[in-house]
Amino acid sequence: MSTDQLTDEACGLRERKKRETRRALNLAALDLVEEKSYAAVTTEEIAARAGVSARTFFNYFPSKEAAVIGTTAEELEAYAASLEAPVEGESPLASLRRILAGMLAPTSVDRDLRAKRRRILLGEPSLAPALVGNNIRIENALTAALERRLGVLPGASLEPRLTVALAIAAVRACIEHQQNGGAGRLERNIDQAFDRIAAGLS
């Protein structure tokens, strides 16, 4: 086996270990919030539940809010790539509808993680400020991806950011509707919200 192959394998193992640790911390945070409530959970408890040190926790997440709802860099890259290279015949708004709904769908790639995250978002209104910060990161990444897809320079057109902002606002409104006891299933409400946006943009 060549030195290059050994180096590639070592890098692969390190990246896999990082993903496993990040996932363990995220799941630990979500489990503890479900058990104790968000306000009662500390970063030290999250680290201990995941089997790592408090110092290691902060190598992965800047706060307990980020550990609970923070979207990882890998996820952001995947969402941006999906928007930049869409399904054939899919409009930008339809792509955003698919991507954003998928972020909350318990049937996505990591079912346990996303299902827990969804329950927390619907059950902990106190996470709203952190969710706004997370949404800004997502908005910036998706706006840049949509600009590349449309072939426009960054900031040269309002359309990409407006489209992304409207899509994220629709999902946030549906989540807040559920948190406040609103009627209907989340998926159905998101579908209806995007239908109304599409009609308005037309």
Automatic annotation (TrEMBL):
GO terms for MF: DNA-binding transcription factor activity; transcription cis-regulatory region binding
DNA-binding region: 42-61
InterPro entries documented for this protein: DNA-bd_HTH_TetR-type_CS, Homeodomain-like_sf, HTH-type_TetR-like_transc_reg, HTH_TetR, MftR_C
Keywords from the named record: DNA-binding, Transcription, Transcription regulation
Residue ranges of domain HTH tetR-type in the record: 19-79
Annotated Pfam families: TetR_C_14, TetR_N
Name used for this protein in its record: TetR family transcriptional regulator
